[in-house]
Specification:
This protein is about 65% helix and about 0% strand.
C-alpha cells in the first residue's frame, strides 16, 4: 500500500487504470529517463492515454513524485524509529543490526521508490522535503551507532557518522544490481549484508 503525507482526496481512476497503477508506471518512467526529463505527456504516452486523461488520476507530476518518495521514506523511518527506542534486554548493537537487515527488506519491497529517492537532488520543494527526511534518518542512525560504540560492541577508532554512512552506503548500493525474483532471497540478502558489515565492525580480542 502506498502511504504519504501529501494530503488531498484520492482521485477515481479512468477505466483500465487506478492511481496505484499510474504511480507504479510513473516511478518506472522516472527511474528510466529521470524525473526532471519526464513530462506528463511522456507519462500519458507510456500509459496509452491522452495528457488530459492523466489528470483524472493525479493532480500533477509532483504529486506522483511525493507519493513515491513518501513510500520509501515511511518504510525507512519506521525501521529506524523502532531501532532507536531503548528496550529492556536489547542492546543498541542488536537494534542497529536489526535496523540494517530491515532496511534491506524495505529497499527490496519498495525498490523502484527507493531507487527514485536515492536519485533526487533537491531541485524542487518535494525533493527538498524528502532530503530533509533522509538527513533526519541519518542523524538518528548515527546516534544509534554512537550508543553501540559506547556499549563497547563496536570499535571506537572509526567515527560513528562514518560508520553510519558506510553501513547505509552498502544497503543503498543494492538498487544498482538487485532485482526481486532473482536467485538471491530477500532474507538471505538482508542477513548477508548484516553479517558482512558487523563481522567487520565487531570487537575482537587481539
Amino acid at each position: 500500500m502506498v502511504t504519504g503525507s501529501t494530503g488531498g482526496t484520492a482521485r477515481r481512476g479512468r477505466p483500465g487504470y487506478d492511481q496505484e497503477t499510474v504511480l507504479r508506471r510513473a516511478v518506472d518512467l522516472f527511474n528510466r529517463q529521470g524525473y526532471d526529463a519526464t513530462s506528463v505527456g511522456d507519462l500519458a504516452r507510456e500509459l496509452g492515454l491522452t495528457k488530459s486523461a492523466i489528470y483524472h488520476h493525479v493532480p500533477s507530476k509532483e504529486h506522483l513524485l511525493a507519493l513515491a518518495l513518501d513510500e520509501a521514506l515511511d518504510g525507512l523511518e519506521a525501521v529506524i524509529g523502532e531501532a532507536v527506542q531503548e528496550r529492556p534486554g536489547t542492546s543498541a548493537y542488536d537494534r542497529l543490526r536489526a535496523a540494517v537487515q530491515q532496511s534491506v527488506e524495505v529497499l527490496v519491497a519498495h525498490l523502484p521508490s527507493v531507487t527514485l529517492l536515492l536519485r533526487v537532488h533537491g531541485n524542487s520543494e518535494v525533493e527538498q522535503r524528502a532530503l530533509a527526511r533522509r538527513r533526519a534518518i541519518d542523524e538518528r542512525l548515527s546516534g544509534l551507532v554512537e550508543d553501540a560504540v559506547a556499549e563497547g560492541a563496536l570499535r571506537a577508532d572509526i567515527d560513528p557518522d562514518l560508520i553510519s554512512r558506510l553501513l547505509f552506503g552498502m544497503v543503498n548500493s543494492l538498487v544498482e544490481w538487485y532485482r526481486p525474483g532473482g536467485p538471491v532471497d530477500t532474507a538471505v540478502l538482508a542477513d548477508a549484508v548484516a553479517t558482512l558489515a558487523f563481522d567487520g565492525l565487531a570487537l575482537r580480542e587481539r
